[in-house]
Amino acid sequence: MESDESRNGNRLADQSAPSPSKEINHQERGKRVRTISASMIPGVTDASPPRFVSLEEIMKAANGMTNMALAHEIAVDKNFMLKKLEPSENSIERKVKETMHRAFWDLLSQELNADPPVYTQALALLQEIKDTLSSLLLPQHTKLKKEIEEVLDMELIRQQIDNETLDFPYYAQYITSVMGKLCAPVRDDKIRELTQTKEVVQVYKGILETLELMKLDMANFTIEMFKPHIQASSVEYEKEKFSEFLKVQADGLFSTREWLSRHVDPSKPDEPKDDILTRAYMETLCWNPDNIFPETLMMDENRFLDIQDECRQLSVTAAVLLLTISSVGCGLESHAEYKMKLKEHIKTILADVKSDSDLAAVLPNVTEQVIKDCKDFLNQIGGKQLSDDTIKALEGQIEKIANPEHKIRELVFKRVSDFLKLIISSSTATPTQVPPGLTSFQAELAQLAGRFLRLVSHNRKVFGEFYTDILNQADPSSSPPVAVVS
User: Alpha-carbon distance 72 to 484, whole Å?
Assistant: First the structure.
C-alpha cells in the first residue's frame, strides 16, 4: 500500500481525478477486499506531531465506532437484519467448531449411557439452556419467568442427580414446551420436530441450535421495534461517535481531505461547495482502486462499489441492446416484450461481473444468447433470418464492448452518471427525465438512483460540517457551507 508520506494531499482535480463520464478499467477487482486506511487506526500516522492517548480513550473510541457502524447499517439499509455467522466451508474455523461440538455431544452421550449415568455435561447444559431461556423473556413474562426458575432449579436438579432420580428427557420436554411459547412462527416446525424426536441427545442438540436462532429472532425483533428511533437519531449519534474517534486519532480525515482536494478547482475560487462535493461523490462511480477510500465513506465502501458495478452492468447491457437493435432492425425497437426479454437475459449473464476482465470472459455467452433471442424473434414475426455476415459483425461489435472506452458503452455510462448526478444535486423532489436511449432501463435507473441518493444524503447529513471545514481550508472563500437536505 502506498505510504501516507508519498501521497500528495493537494492534487488538483484535473491532474488525477477520474472523469465521472469515464469508467476505470479495474481488471483485478473481481473479488472485493475491504481496505483500511492507516488513518483509521488510532496512533498510526506520521503526518502530525506525536500525542498521547490512554488505552481507555482508545477502547472507548473503538467501541463507539462499532456502535456507530451498527446504527449506520440500520439507518441506511431498510432491510437490515442480523444473520447467523457461519464459518466458510472447509475453513479451519469450521472444522474446529464441528470437532468441538461433536466432542461435546459424544461425551454427553457417553456420560448418559454410563452405569450409573454421569450428569456433569448435562448439568452444564441445563444451566446454559436456563440462562438462554431467561434472556428471551420480555418484561410481561413474569409468570413464565417464575415457572422457569422453579422447574429448572439447579439446586433441585443436583439433588435429583445425587438421589439418582433425574429425569433428563422430562426436562427436554419442558424446555421445548417453553420454547414453543416464546419462538417466532417461523420456528414452529422445528419445535414440532423436536417434540417428535425420541433420542434425548439429539433433542438437546436441536434445542441448543434452535435457541441460537431464537436469540437472533429476538435481536431482530428488538431492532425492528426501535428502528424508527434509531433512524431518526442516527445522524447526531454518528456525528458524536465520529468526533470521539477524531479526538484520539492524530489525523482521522487524511484520506477524506485527499479525496475532496482532487475536486477543488483553483481557477474557480467562488465555486459552491455543494458542486465540489457532488463531483467528489460522482468519483465513487469510477473509483480508482489505487486510492484509499475516505474515512467518512468507509462504512459504505462496499455499497458504493456495488453501485459502481451496477453502473458498469447497466451500461454494458444497454450498449449491447442498442447495438443489437441497430444490427437486426426488423422493428425490434417497437417490440417491447422482446426487448425486455433480451434485456433480462443479458442482465442475468452479467450479474456476477465485477471487472472488465470478468466482462471479457462472459461476452461470448452474451453474444450467443443475443443471437438466439434474435433468431427466435425473427421466427416469431416471420422475418428474414440473420445472414452470416450480420452475425459475424454483431459478434465483433459485442466483443469490443469489453473495452471501457468503447464509444457506445462510454456514451451510455455518461448518460447514466449524468442522471445520477442530477438526482443527488437536486434540492427538490421534481421528476428527472430518463436519459435518451435508456427508457427500457427506467426501473433499473430508478432503483440505482434511489440507493445512491440514500447513501449520499445520509453521508451529507452526518459529515457535511467536516466537509465544509476541509473545503474552507483547501480554498478559503465566501461560498456557503455544504447544504444538508432534510
Answer: 17
Amino acid letter, residue 93: E
Beta carbons of 471 and 333 less than 8 angstroms apart: no
Residue 231: its pLDDT value, please?
76
**Single-letter residue type at 9:** G
Question: Residue 259's closest CA among 230, 281, 236?
Answer: 281
> Residues 6 or more apart from 131 whose CB is under 8 A from it?
none
Tell me how far apart the alpha carbons of residues 310 and 308 are, in angstroms, rounded to a whole number.
5
What is residue 414's predicted lDDT score, i.e. its pLDDT?
Answer: 95
Q: Spell out the residues 6+ positions from residue 337 whose beta carbon is closer than 8 angstroms to its own.
A: none
Q: What are phi and psi of 104, to 5 degrees?
A: -65, -50
Task: Give me the sign of the Cα torsion angle 227, 231, 236, 240.
Answer: positive
Q: Which segments of the chain have a pLDDT < 70?
A: 1-66, 329-333, 429, 475-486
- Which secondary-structure segment (H or E) carries 255? helix 254-261
Q: What is the pLDDT of residue 273?
A: 92
pTM for the structure as a whole: 0.68
pLDDT computed for residue 445 by the predictor: 93
Distance between CA 254 and CA 9 in Å, rounded?
8
User: Can you give the pLDDT at residue 484?
Assistant: 55
Integer Cα distance of 374 and 352 in angstroms: 24
Burial class (CB in 10 A: 0-12, 13-18, 19+), 306: middle
Sign of torsion, CA 41 42 43 49?
Answer: positive
Are the beta carbons of 319 and 23 closer than 8 angstroms?
no
Which region, left, alpha or beta, applies to residue 331 given φ > 0 means left and ψ of -120 to 50 means alpha?
A: left
Q: What is the DSSP letter of 48?
A: S
Residue 261 has a pLDDT of 93
pLDDT tens-digit map of 93-138 = 888 888 998 999 999 999 999 988 999 999 999 999 999 999 999 8
Residue type, 399: E
**Helices vs strands, H then E, count in the chain:** 17, 0
What pLDDT, on the 0 to 100 scale, is given for residue 274?
A: 93
Measure the CA–CA gap between 338 and 149, rounded to whole angstroms.
66
Whose grid coordinates read 475491504? 34
Q: How far apart are CA 137 and CA 421, in angstroms?
A: 49
The region, left, alpha or beta by phi > 0 then psi within -120 to 50, assigned to residue 328 is alpha
Cα-Cα-Cα-Cα dihedral of 162, 164, 167, 171, to 10°? 10
The cell for 95 is 472444522
CB atoms within 10 A of CB 405: 10
